[in-house]
Each structure stands twice: as structure tokens, then as C-alpha cells.
Amino acid sequence: MRTSIRTKLLVILLALFVAFSNVACGKDSIEKSIAITVRSIKAARQVTTEQAEFGHITDAEYASRLKLFRSLYISVDALGDKITRFGEINATNKSEILAAIRDVNGQVLALVGTGNLGIKNPDSKARFSKWALLASGTLSSIELAVAASKKTIKTGDVQIEKLQ
Fold it and tell me: Where are the beta strands (DSSP E) in 3-158?
């Protein structure tokens, strides 16, 4: 149990580090933060697939999680499209961008809540939590930076990897 608590604390500290290291907001930090989010979500998805392949979760649990991941992929891609389409984050569209970020982060946190259920292997459980919480921490950093910004944030030609 001690390792589990230590792992959780390390994951939380890592997520906070990512969150606070990306507070300066601009095209590059948004691009970097979303790239970290995408990689983290892919890694959490891989852990889920491994668990299914090893028979550590049932087919029904795997199918349920895949639905959550598909929905999350659509939302992350839509967030990236929105940021790119607007070309900048300003007073007019800031609330819409923040709502999209919060929606994606809510879906990531839902994965954290359900993704560990049924995973019997403690290492896999820790890896899943690490990746999902890193995605959430990174999204929180984007949200914090956008919310705190008093000026227009140029996002023009931001390059965002698609999940689908």
C-alpha cells in the first residue's frame, strides 16, 4: 500500500510541475501542452489495451473504456480544431475555449475514476494513473494560463496532433 501512496504522490507532483511550468501562455506552450496531453492519453489507452490482452479486465470493461477513450479523442481533436480555427484566444472566445478545456479535462478525470477499476496489476494501475493524471495536469495548466491571461493569445498556425 505504501508504494501505491508514494506513486500517487509522485504523479500528483509531476502533474503540478507540468501545470506550473506551462503557465506562460502562447502558441508554443499551448502546442507543447496539448502534445503532452495527446501522448499521455495514448499511453493510458495502451495500458488499458494491455490489461485486456492479458485478461486482467473483462471484455465488457474493455469495451466500456474504449467508449470513454473514443469520446475523449473526439473532444481533444475538437479542442485542437477550435484553438486553430480561432487563430487567437481573446475576450470574445475565451469562455468557449475554457469550456472546451474543462470538458476534455472532465472526461480525463472520468477515465481516472473508472480506468483503474478492475486493474489487478499494481504496476499497470500506477502507469494508468500516471498517464491519465499527467494529461489532466497539463490540461489544467492550459486552463490556468488562458484564464489568467489579460491579453490576446495568438494561436494562428498551432500544430496539434490528431488522436483519430
Answer: 88-89, 153-154
